Amino acid sequence: MASSDVARQPDKGVRPLSLAGHVGFDSLPDQLVNKSICQGFCFNILCIGETGIGKSTLMDTLFNTNFENFESSHFEPQVKLRAQTYDLQESNVRLRLTVVNTVGFGDQMNKQESYQPVVDYIDRQFESYLQEELKIKRSLHNYHDSRVHACLYFISPSGHSLKSLDLVTMKKLDSKVNIIPVIAKADTISKSELHKFKIKIMSELVSNGVQIYQFPLDDETVAKVNTTMNGHLPFAVVGSTEEVSVGNKMVKARQYPWGVVQVENENHCDFVKLREMLICVNMEDLREQTHTRHYELYRRCKLEEMGFKDTDPECKPVSLQQTYEAKRQEFLVELQKREDEMRQMFVQRVKEKEAELKDAERELQGRFEQLKRLHADEKAALEEKKRLFEDDQSSFSKRRAAAQLLQAQSLTANGKKDKDRKNSGFM
Amino acid sequence: MSESTKPHPQGKGEKTHVGDSSYVGIDAILEQMRRKAMKQGFEFNIMVVGQSGLGKSTLVNTLFKSKVSRKSVQPNPEERIPKTIEIKSISHDIEEKGVRMKLTVIDTPGFGDQINNENCWQPIMKFINDQYEVYLQEEININRKKRIPDSRVHCCIYFIPPTGHCLRPLDVEFMRRLSKVVNIVPVIAKADTLTLEERDYFKQTIREELRANGIDVYPQKEFDEDAEDRMINDKIREMIPFAVVGSDQEYQVNGKRILGRKTKWGTIEVENIAHCEFAYLRDLLIRTHMQNIKDITGSIHYETYRVRRLNESNIHFSRVSVLCQSKKYFPYTQDIKF
């Protein structure tokens, strides 16, 4: 990679000196390595491929463990991503490995939007790193880096050429992540077909302008190995976690009635090459490329999108601060406007509601009056009836009294008449 | 890429099985890191502060076994003491066993030499903060360099004159202010004027005074990472400040050529720990703790500066991150229902 290597170019005013004795700073790389051992490492792999193409098996084989795997159905309505994190350790190196698998890739009837969830996932990881970097109080060295460092793209072993889904997806991803294409289930292709297939794939990638990850050639110790490996891309891999006895050893292999495909045999498949390139030789470079190339690109685009610039139209360097202050003012003004609008709307709503409530109140009041009047009327009527009844009652009782009196009088009158008759008889 | 000499894995994480063929190669990343570090080279910036005549330049030359100090580069026929404090930095590319380092020595002639030394720390503080500022500006650029050139002062060696009594107010003031922004390593200069008992007494007094004034010198207690670290650093803290003697002349002692100072009553061997503590200082600064010094500068002092600076100038980058999710904030398109 072309880098502005500060130490390489002689600065003005920096003189090369020779030392007269052993100073001891040659232990610096050791100090650095020790610190990294204490901190641990982080590596994130994204596996894209159709359902059932062997992504999980290959991960198991690569890292020699049994990750929890679910068999997914072929009926997923949308492409989803499933990320799982594991802590692995080998001698004194601790690795936090995150394996992200696509679920349902290539299963839908309409595959136009298949790449979108993958792109979104990668962008989300960049975004959260950017957020952390822009925080005021940040802790970058403690931060669990979830950015995708390597993307293994699984190509179906059709033997002909790349599918258009493959091309579209890889084109969308090549500026965001290091793509390493692999041919899955390579034991279904014969040697000659494989050779033609690889050539066809590489030429299609080149003609479509897809930039896959090239193993770095700038370090002399690994340049030779990397150049050879670059010529073997894409790697044709076979994955297997089952062991079969071959000769007098147990090896990882797939057993068929016609023979045994050994995973770690270089004549049978390129698995060993993949493992060597991915893990043993270039893991650090993959991480570095992700950080210095893909992440920087994302960051630049994101900040430019928000309107930040390093230089304004007159090509004078504008500090981030000035741009930011301007943006902030705009934002605050906008916020204020929105707030005012909201307040007005609120006030209006309140008024409307108040009016409604007042109407309701008035109506209720009216009803109440009416009911009261009705009640009063009824009461009056009842009073009237009561009075009449009492009149009736009193007249009745008068009449009764009169009748009784009359009766009493008539009795006494009769008695008196008798008496009178009696008395008159004597006269 | 040599694989045959790799050790067999002792065991792995959660879901594993151990066998001879279970080597994955994860530990090869250490080798990859080492290669990358060697290719990139290292940077180290060291500042020396102290009154003139305390042997700062000589000590730096002795530390790096070559003429790295300002005096060696710009020889002045007459040594004049500057009227104000100047800050002069010289950079060198040095290499040892394939490891390349860009060493910058920052000298502060004039410190403590005036009659009125109030505020003599200010130019130094300003210089250190300026380096942080340059780094910060580069870091918040949109188009930033692949490797931001690190000119931040990693370590400041403060020279205490060998009075044998206690720290002077100038020393206390300076160290108190600067220990908050940079890693300070105090040393007793020209320690060959003190006997061993005087030296021990002086050191003890200094340590007490540092403690009493709340001055945290390197290695700071609060940044010890684990028990092992604390043990190692406690041993170092018991020896601070180092009593050093510097020399760039070699003499024949016992058939060997050794750096030393020859006097009528004997030759002081600089690298002999029975004579002075230069070897401890060199081991601390270069052989064991250099990376740690750089880390503390980067992750703690620089971050403190950054927090303060961002808060001051009201660049709330948390607001920037809010703007990033501006979709959430801008359209209030729904009516508010009551």
Structure description:
The complex is a heterodimer of chains A (427) and B (338). Chain A is an alpha/beta fold and 427 residues long. Chain A has two domains: 37-306, 3-Layer(aba) Sandwich (Rossmann fold); 319-403. Chain A has helices spanning 28-39, 55-63, 115-134, 164-173, 191-207, 220-232, 271-281, 283-305, 320-425, and strands spanning 14-17, 41-48, 80-90, 93-103, 150-155, 179-183, 235-236, 243-246, 249-256, 259-262. Chain A has a six-stranded mixed sheet, with helices on both faces. Chain A has a three-stranded antiparallel sheet with strand order 8-9-10, with no helix packed on it. In chain A, a hairpin with a 2-residue loop joins strand 3 (80-90) and strand 4. In chain A, helix 7 crosses helix 8. With 338 residues, chain B is of the alpha/beta class. Chain B has one domain (40-318): P-loop containing nucleotide triphosphate hydrolases (Rossmann fold). Chain B has eleven helices and nine strands. Chain B has helices spanning 28-40, 56-64, 70-73, 121-139, 169-178, 196-212, 227-239, 278-288, 290-312, 317-324, 326-329, and strands spanning 42-49, 88-96, 99-107, 155-160, 183-188, 242-243, 250-253, 256-263, 266-269. In chain B, the strands form two sheets. Chain B has a six-stranded mixed sheet, with helices on both faces. A three-stranded antiparallel sheet of chain B has the order 7-8-9, with no helix packed on it. The interface between A and B is large, with 106 and 98 residues. Chain B: Pfam families: Septin. Chain B: One of its GO terms (biological process) is cell division. Chain B: GO terms for molecular function: GTP binding. Chain B: It is found in: Cytoplasm, Cytoskeleton.
